[in-house]
Write a structure and sequence with these properties.
nine-stranded mixed β-sheet; globular; about 425 residues
Length: about 425
């Protein structure tokens, strides 16, 4: 029996990431099932979770449950990770009467907008928006429903009590991606950076700001994970005080408040960072990408609305950085296949298989962008159930097929749908 070192990268996509909830649930169940049946084939250890936006919330929930915690003995196992994922999504769902009413109002407003009916446009900094948030609180809407900071504190109540030495020993990592608005920096909030600050793992060339000042690594924080999900059309920029930024002068920096937006604008999700480790044994053998935004799309006709165009723009934007980072890994794999790893600069590199877990074609092509804001219990349950069905089948195929199992880029496509034009269109 071989034990594969696995990193799971969770793409963002609003409430469509309830699909990821179901997928991660099945991955964690498979971990327990495979370990209990060593004669049945290969198994795996989870070395890292990464994510952007709602994918970052999923990654954080799973990591927090897997990480041992001095204040909560229930943490530190796949079962605890599944419980934290359940807590995340049931807390995020519209539950109280006021929340259900608010969710229905948002859905109605999006339908009016799609139908080109007059609507009131407002941004997160408008007085109307601020009064609306205050009014929702008075009506009984929970803080965990209104904002990510309260949701994350509910999800990870004892983050300061994580057993960091044990996390270092297990080499269990979590990464959340965000964009800093003023500098344009691609930034990650990284548990490995926390371990380096604590002196629990050795520093390396990628620590701190990294080799590129536009790619910054910060210690893990709940504010950082919240920043990853801060959609600028809906929420004010996440403010994180006391952030250090390099200047144009060598060795000089400035400390100021950082202003962060959704990681969709930087990495969706962070992948390249998962292989930027100095020791070969710390790199994953495989990266499993839970994809929310479909790579391909085939409309029934080319007579599409402006909302359809915006929906596809969102898919393409969400996949742009992901595909670039995956192509980097495929390039390294080709070099290793051709030149081997006996000599620099490839002597610290490792061949990494990339695999895709994605929604069914009908679901991916059938749900629109507006439904990414739907927080109804029924919507969440349907996507979670699909994630569980696909995840369970995917895990069994992974173990059964081994090296013959599909991999990226081919597995990002849907069988029988080679991106052809709609019927009758040439």
């Amino acid at each position: 029996m071989a034990v594969r070192r696995i990193a799971v990268a969770c793409q963002g996509g609003g409430t469509h990431a309830a699909f990821t909830w179901g997928v991660l649930d099945e991955i964690l169940l498979a971990k327990e099932r495979f370990d209990a049946d060593p004669a049945g084939g290969d198994t795996f250890e989870i070395s890292a979770f990464s994510g952007t936006s709602a994918g970052a919330l999923c990654a954080m929930a799973a990591w927090y449950g897997m990480a041992p915690n001095r204040a909560d003995a229930a943490m530190g196992s796949p079962a605890a990770a599944r419980e934290r994922l359940d807590h995340l999504w049931t807390t995020f769902t519209a539950t109280t009467p006021a929340e259900i009413l608010h969710n229905e109002w948002v859905a109605a407003a999006l339908r009016w907008q799609a139908g080109h009916l007059p609507t009131v446009s407002s941004g997160p900094y408008d007085l109307v928006s601020r009064l609306s948030m205050a009014g929702l609180s008075m009506m009984g809407v929970r803080p965990e429903y209104l904002g990510f900071p309260a949701l994350l504190h509910s999800l990870c109540p004892h983050l300061d009590d994580v057993d960091w030495p044990e996390v270092a020993r297990r080499r269990l990592r979590v990464i959340a991606g965000a964009i800093e608005v003023l500098s344009g920096n691609t930034e990650i909030f990284d548990s490995d950076t926390t371990l380096r600050v604590m002196g629990l793992i050795e520093p390396d060339e990628y620590a701190g700001t990294g080799a590129n000042r536009w790619r910054m690594r910060r210690p893990l924080s709940l504010d950082g994970v919240a920043a990853s999900g801060t959609l600028p059309e809906v929420l004010p920029a996440q403010r994180i005080p006391g952030m250090e930024f390099p200047t144009c002068e060598p060795g000089e920096s400035v400390t100021r408040t950082g202003y962060y937006w959704d990681g969709l604008y930087s990495q969706n999700p962070p992948v390249r960072d998962l292989v930027d480790a100095p020791a070969r044994e710390d790199k994953p053998d495989e990266i499993w990408v839970v994809r929310i935004n479909p790579q391909e799309f085939s409309p029934v006709s080319l007579d599409v609305s402006l909302d359809d165009i915006h929906d596809r723009e969102n898919d393409l934007a969400g996949n742009l950085s992901l595909n670039q980072e995956l192509d980097h890994i495929l390039t390294m794999n080709r070099w290793l296949d051709r030149y081997g790893d006996a000599h620099p600069p490839l002597d610290t590199r490792k061949r990494v298989e990339v695999r895709t877990i994605k929604m069914s074609r009908d679901t991916a092509w059938g749900i629109g962008h507006a439904s990414k804001l739907d927080r109804s219990a029924g919507h969440m349950a349907r996507l979670r159930e699909e994630g569980r069905e696909i995840g369970a089948r995917w895990m069994e195929d992974w173990r059964r097929l081994g090296a013959e199992f599909d991999r990226y880029p081919d597995d990002a496509r849907y069988p029988g749908s080679p991106g052809v034009a709609p019927p009758g269109v040439r």
